[in-house]
Design a protein that fits this description.
196 residues; two-stranded antiparallel ribbon
């Protein structure tokens, strides 16, 4: 068949029609049908591992998106309830077990921008920051989803090649097992004609 895989720079497979290319740091192309059973199974195992890693990364991106969406909801909720609780006392958590009495007069939000740094922003700036992070994660998730689709297609091509090799091997064994019987039949027919 026309299935092949090529090692290029990105370490990801790409498909065009019936051909399958596997890209890595070396630019070379090898037909899947030219690999023996052990090589195919090893290739399938490594591809499965890469697929599991990609799916785990995609799930982590989705969770991060949901966390930023929760942050937006929290900022909006605080702004909406600011007037109703402005003069009321509340307990503010400093740690998981330590609370202090205080009042809600939030005008700014301290946003974790990574590596332990916090930046003070108002409601609009905070929501814009979270939306920007969500858009970035969405773009990364789309790219990962494409890689996952390509890995799944590669696994299907490998499985198809393995099935074809099994069918060919069974046909070869069947042909070899019938060959002696055919030879004996021809010999018997020749002797029978000679005797007659």
């Amino acid at each position: 068949n026309g299935r092949s895989w090529r090692r290029g720079r990105a370490g990801t497979p790409a498909f065009t029609g019936s051909s399958c290319d596997y890209k890595h740091q070396y630019n070379m192309s090898v037909s899947l049908s030219s690999l023996d059973s052990q090589q195919l199974m090893g290739f399938k195992q490594s591809t499965n591992q890469e697929l599991a890693h990609l799916q785990s990364s995609h799930d982590a991106l989705v969770m991060a998106q949901n966390k930023y969406k929760d942050c937006i909801d929290s900022v909006k909720m605080i702004e909406q309830n600011k007037e109703s609780v402005a003069d009321k006392d509340m307990f503010i958590p400093l740690t998981s077990s330590l609370y202090v009495r205080g009042r809600n007069s939030v005008d700014k939000f301290k946003i974790d921008v990574g590596t332990g740094y916090f930046v003070e922003k108002d409601q609009a700036e905070a929501i814009a920051f979270f939306n920007k992070r969500i858009d970035k994660l969405s773009g990364d998730a789309i790219k990962l989803k494409q890689l996952i689709t390509e890995k799944v297609s590669l696994l299907q091509a490998i499985d198809s090649t393995i099935r074809e090799k099994i069918i060919a091997a069974n046909a070869s064994v069947a042909a070899k097992s019938n060959a002696p019987a055919s030879a004996w039949t021809n010999l018997y027919n020749s002797l029978h004609l000679f005797i007659i």
